[in-house]
Design a protein that fits this description.
Layout: E1 26-27, E2 33-35, H1 41-51, E3 54-58, H2 64-78, H3 82-85, E4 95-101, E5 106-116, H4 129-156, H5 166-170, E6 177-183, H6 189-192, E7 204-209, E8 215-220, E9 226-229, E10 235-237, E11 245-249, H7 251-256, E12 266-269, E13 276-283, E14 290-291, E15 310-311, H8 312-320
The chain binds gibberellin A4.
Gibberellin A4 binds next to strand 5, strand 6 and helix 8.
Length: about 325
């Protein structure tokens, strides 16, 4: 049966957003780089999470065949006829989505698959056996690398035991998500004159936002598009690297570190010639997990908590009712 995804009513204009002239950005070679096999990895991770909430990881140990196999399967899926892709729709909460992001009227030039990373992809059409096994293998290897990173972080922050963060992702009840985004090349100006949407600026593939979870791990093909916002609000373009992973601190980790780590604001712009394919593992805790600053990080009780305690379920419910660009932690800050 073909199930068509029903878009939510737009709350603003239905036109695709694009960047204004003032939103200039630079291709940045200053992105923190962490060699996971180097002895200084943990101190570099801490510094990167404090200054950027973002870093690139090399020597990660994930075999490249896992991401090339998955990329080939995903490209095959996105090249299917729309009516076939729609059989995996709508993305509420999991499935195929196109243009509509979330359920509150956000749109972007993106089509995607959104899946639970902990459900063994049972919700995916059973005909897609090879695709499913490629996802399973990829997610399992990436989850294990992510746990190594979280253990280095815990060590660097002197958190005991060192699996305090990683065990949340390994828990059977962990609420982690896996997403594959496909950004088709953005056609030239002529094609869009009718829609009056094209300025000189670049088109938004995925609008600016922070990730609600603990940590996000992204791998993309070599097409640029990802941009991150620095502390001063400047946007910089992250040079793509298909052999590396890019790590984002999420809102939950910002809270657990009482604001020492920053949840990085990021977005994706489309490319005029090449399509971008990215795969992101969002590591989340079990729904019942209480999220609050870790006591050992509150300077032996001298530092006060910046956030009210909440469960991941409460945060997620509030996040899924927000617009993409909202500051979701605002409601949970102590005044
Ligand atoms: C951003 C990070 C992940 O992609 C995601 C997104 C989710 C969705 O696409 O359904 C959200 C967005 C994300 C945060 C605010 C809400 C929910 C879209 C949206 C407008 C899967 C997630 O966990 O939060």
């Amino acid at each position: 049966m073909v199930v068509l995804s029903k878009p939510p009513p737009p709350t603003t204009t239905d036109h695709f957003p694009c960047l204004g002239e003032a939103d200039t950005n630079v291709l940045c070679s200053q992105i923190p780089l962490v060699d996971l096999s180097a002895p200084e990895a943990k101190s570099l991770i801490i510094k990167a999470c404090e200054d950027f909430g973002f870093f690139k990881v090399v020597n990660h140990g994930v075999p490249s065949c896992l991401f090339s196999d998955l990329e080939a399967e995903a490209s095959g899926f996105f090249s299917l006829h729309p009516s076939l892709k729609e059989t995996a729709a709508p993305p509420s909460p999991f499935g195929y989505g196109n243009k509509w992001i979330g359920r509150n009227g956000d749109i972007g030039r993106v089509e995607y698959l959104l899946l639970s990373a902990d459900s063994h992809f049972q919700n995916f059409p059973s005909t897609a056996g090879k695709f499913c096994s490629a996802m399973k293998e990829y997610v399992s290897a990436v989850r294990s690398m992510t746990c190594d990173i979280l253990e280095l972080m815990a060590d660097g922050l002197k958190i005991q035991p060192k699996d305090m963060l990683s065990k949340l992702l390994m828990d059977e009840q962990s609420d982690s998500v896996f997403r594959i985004n496909h950004y088709p090349p953005c056609p030239d100006k002529q094609s869009y004159d009718d829609e009056e949407e094209e300025e000189e600026g670049q088109m938004i593939g995925f609008g600016e936002h922070t990730d609600p979870q603990i940590i996000s791990v992204l791998r993309s093909n070599n097409t640029p598009g990802l941009q991150i916002s620095l502390k001063d609000g400047t946007w910089i373009t992250v040079p793509p690297d298909q052999d590396s992973f890019f790590i984002n601190v999420g809102d939950s980790l910002q809270v657990m570190t009482n604001g020492k780590f920053r949840s990085v604001r990021h977005r994706v712009v489309t490319n005029r010639r090449k399509s971008r394919l990215s795969m992101i593992y969002f590591g989340g805790p079990p729904l019942s997990e209480k999220i609050a600053p870790l006591p050992s990080l509150l300077m032996k009780g001298k530092e006060s908590s910046l956030y009210k305690e909440f469960t991941w379920f409460e945060y997620k419910r509030s996040a899924y009712n927000s617009r993409l660009a909202d500051n979701r932690l605002e409601n949970f800050q102590r005044v």
